[in-house]
Specification:
There is one protein chain. By secondary structure, this protein is an alpha+beta fold. The protein has ten helices and 20 strands. 19% of the residues lie in helices and 27% in strands. A hairpin with a 3-residue loop joins β16 and β17. The strands form five sheets. The protein has an eight-stranded antiparallel β-sheet with strand order 12-18-17-16-15-14-13-20, sandwiched between helices. A four-stranded antiparallel β-sheet has the order 5-4-3-6, with no helix packed on it.
Length: 405
């Protein structure tokens, strides 16, 4: 669906102030449909999985990018291919399960069969097809992809710049966040649907963490001595510091859940304090959290104007011993999962923001760390001013004109 310019005419102009965001951007149906066209089908790279989620030929994972169902599968040569998850014949969705393994992909409607390289191999009653019919014209349609240390990116637009250009400035932080070399093993998933617009979920900031989350106060993780950086592409890098570890408490039955066992790993040498955290948010909304010993990728996708589905995927490193694997499993979801003791309050706040969009004032404001005329690309750990860079990239990609002062 293409949105004509006049369909947006009822919306007020984007606010003149750089640190103001209009609430209509979160709940207008026509804005959501335009986002599907200009962001999720636009010239943007979207991380959709890690290669280790499909370790063997035939292994697959299904994802949705905007409204487009995709199928990721490892082929016989070990490559990860991404296809439109649809039979080219009559448009039937091919594979429904989230993950699995199959050496052939069969359409349930007319039993056309494709190999794991996406090639059409057989069709029932082919002798009755037109003489000009050729199987190679009906292979699965590939999606443009690229990888960075096993993290698989996809784009639905031919005009998308190279992944190297898109990730400029984040290559090394992403590398360390992915275990230093991307050699990961999947531990498992948690899936949640937040009852909010996808941008409310994305718009989380460092300001709220020690104020909203009770665990931050109990653990005294309120120092805010870290830093955050926004790149010109809108990506977000936060390196946080936790001022110490709790060895004994009356609120943690097992204090080892917040221990850091990583030791002298490469990530501690100039990139990330081991006892702190590294957070990378790739524009528009996919996040990597490397908190203590956690390796967590959060694959998110809007499922409507007021709902966003998030898959929390947890990993260990290929070289981890049994003790470290158990530690990562125990620490990961218990700490920063959707119901983790550090982050469980987020869902309620997302819903409260969604419920209060049709209110005055009609704008949201970023004030912590903000100064008029500042360069908001950098800030302290608990500032919210750098969020304005994400919104400026969004405004420009969506084509919204800023009002004049």
């Amino acid at each position: 669906m293409k949105i004509a310019d006049h369909d947006l005419s009822r919306l007020p102009q984007w606010p003149a102030a750089f640190n103001h965001v209009p609430k209509w951007a979160f709940h207008a149906d026509e804005v959501y449909e335009l986002e599907i066209e200009r962001i999720f089908k636009g010239p943007v790279w979207h991380p959709i999985g890690h290669a280790c989620e499909m370790p063997n030929p035939g292994d697959y994972k299904t994802v949705t990018l905007g409204h487009t169902p995709l199928l990721m599968q490892r082929d016989a040569q070990g490559r990860i291919n991404v296809y439109h998850n649809v039979c080219p014949h009559r448009g039937t969705k091919l594979t429904a399960p989230f993950r699995g393994s199959q050496q052939e992909i069969e359409c349930p409607y007319h039993r056309w069969v494709f190999d794991i390289g996406g090639n059409l191999r057989s069709c029932p009653a082919e002798e009755d097809f037109p003489p000009e019919f050729k199987k190679q014209d009906y292979n699965l349609r590939k999606v443009r992809t690229a990888e960075h240390y096993g993290l698989v990116f996809a784009t639905l637009n031919d005009a998308t710049p190279s992944l190297a250009d898109y990730l400029s400035g984040l290559e090394e932080p992403l590398r360390w966040g992915l275990g230093g070399d991307g050699r990961l093993k999947l531990l498992g998933y948690q899936k949640v649907v937040y009852e909010s617009n996808w941008k409310i979920y994305m718009d989380n900031d460092g300001y709220h963490a020690p104020l909203l989350h009770a665990a931050f106060r109990l653990l005294k993780w309120q120092g805010g001595a870290g830093q955050q950086v926004r790149t010109p592409m809108g990506h977000w890098l936060v390196e946080s510091e936790n001022p110490g570890q709790v060895s004994k408490s009356d609120f943690l039955r097992d204090p080892t859940v917040i221990q850091y066992l990583g030791g002298d790993t490469p990530r501690n040498k100039g990139h990330h304090q081991g006892s702190g955290s590294l957070l990378v948010l790739l524009w528009p909304l996919i996040g990597l959290a490397n908190h203590l010993d956690i390796i967590n990728l959060r694959f998110a996708n809007p499922v409507g104007v007021d709902k966003v589905e998030v898959h929390y995927a947890y990993f260990c490193h290929e070289d981890d011993d049994e003790q470290m694997v158990r530690h990562r499993i125990r620490q990961s979801s218990n700490m920063i999962g959707p119901s983790g003791f550090v982050s469980l309050e987020d869902a309620t706040v997302f819903r409260r923001i969604q419920d209060a969009l049709d209110t005055e004032p009609s704008e949201a404001y970023f004030v912590k760390g903000w100064r008029e005329g500042m360069d908001a690309h950098t800030g302290k750990q608990n500032d919210e001013a750098p969020n304005t860079i994400w919104w400026e990239v969004y405004r420009e990609r969506m084509g919204f004109e800023r009002a004049r002062r």
